[in-house]
Design brief:
The protein has about 350 residues and is of the alpha/beta class. It has three domains: about 110 residues, no CATH class; about 140 residues, 3-Layer(aba) Sandwich (Rossmann fold), CATH 3.40.50; about 60 residues, no CATH class. The protein is about 40% helix and about 20% strand. It has ten helices and 15 strands. A six-stranded parallel β-sheet has the order 8-7-6-9-10-11, with helices on both faces. Strands 2-3-1-4-5 form a five-stranded mixed β-sheet, sandwiched between helices. A hairpin with a 3-residue loop joins strand 2 and strand 3. The termini are far apart.
Length: about 350
């Protein structure tokens, strides 16, 4: 499908996004994401995603020119444009800078799609396995996403094995993660050849983008009650799928919708927090701070700078709250703010 046809599809998506957002009284968003998967089209329009804060249309791009065309078209038609800032593809370097230079009406926010995928995987595994401590988890594809998930899992106490097409790379990545993991974490990342990584594992994850690396032998060697997660969409060979079903092994394709919903929530909650909670005010010579804003010694800390309803304490001038007994003058400050500002 050529770009013009895809742009026609995007126009329909934008119309639906803005209509549904208006009806639900939430924000309208177009997400521009990137991927390392083999290029087939200039862009791919994805299904709509609905969250608590927004209705989101999404498109995956492979070229900067396509991203720029999309930015020009949707500017002003939606409230926000959410751009994948992770530099995965050489010809998409500085995509955020390009979009920012084009977009004049919509607000541009950034995210990292790989981080969203890693969060989705970690959350799914936590729900599937409960306590992963002591569980044997094999990850094939120890690139950006696989490495992030491996770090999360090993810090939870899992026995994590990683493999890639090159065992030397796997050893380097394992060594790096073992340095990065928390100091008191006893579990370690262990590099393994692809051929033996799945033996007796509780969970097998494929993070090779569209490359079917999980084969019959792997599925046959893992635990019968095990689980396979297709994290790269298309990482499992056909015979392996059949074998998994025969052995009662569950197969799940990783779906990032819950993590994406969380991402949108964080972005919009942070924006709201920045506008209404963080800040400094001077009230009749008394400084008022909120939301983590560093106050001067003696400033009054409140719950939010916009319409405060609670006093949290007195600033110690170092980012914290005074714990020692307050002087008469400081107590008077608190009383004055309580009487005249707190509602």
């Amino acid at each position: 499908m050529d770009f013009n046809n895809q742009l026609s599809n995007l126009k329909k998506v934008v119309k639906e996004v803005t209509s549904r957002a208006a009806k639900s009284n939430v924000k309208s968003v177009i997400v521009i994401s990137t991927t390392l998967r083999k290029k087939t089209e200039d862009m791919v329009v994805l299904p709509l995603r609905e969250t608590k804060f927004a209705i989101c249309g999404a498109v995956t791009v492979y070229e900067k020119k396509a991203a720029e065309k999309i930015g020009r078209y949707v500017d002003g038609k939606v409230d926000y444009i959410l751009v994948d800032a992770e530099q995965k593809i050489r010809n998409l370097e500085n995509i955020v800078q390009s979009i920012n230079s084009i977009v004049k009406k919509s607000k541009v926010l950034t995210f990292k799609n790989n981080d969203t995928t890693a969060l989705a995987a970690d959350s799914l595994i936590s729900n599937l396995l409960g306590n992963v401590s002591g569980k044997k988890i094999a990850i094939i594809g120890s690139g950006n996403i696989g490495s992030k998930v491996a770090l999360q899992l090993v810090e939870r106490g899992a026995k994590v094995l990683i493999a890639s097409s090159n065992i030397k790379n796997s050893r380097k990545i394992a060594a790096a993660i073992n340095i990065l993991k928390t100091k008191n974490c006893k579990s370690k990342i262990v590099p393994k050849p692809v051929s033996s990584i799945a033996k007796n594992c509780d969970l097998l994850i494929g993070f090779t983008p569209g490359i079917p690396v999980i084969d019959y032998d792997m599925v046959h060697s893992m635990k019968k009650e095990g689980i396979i997660i297709d994290g790269g969409v298309g990482t499992i060979q056909t015979k392996a799928i059949t074998t998994a079903h025969e052995r009662g092994i569950r197969i799940l394709r990783l779906d990032i919708r819950p993590a994406f919903s969380g991402l949108v929530s964080i972005l919009f909650e942070t924006e709201k927090f920045q506008k209404k909670t963080i800040g400094f005010r001077n009230f009749e010579g008394i400084g008022i701070v909120a939301g983590g804003m560093y106050g001067n010694y003696g400033d009054v800390i409140v719950d939010k700078i916009s319409n405060p309803s609670k006093i949290l304490g007195i600033a110690d001038g170092k980012g914290g709250i005074l714990r020692k007994k307050l002087t008469y003058d400081l107590k008077q400050k608190l009383r004055k703010i309580e009487l005249l500002v707190i509602k």
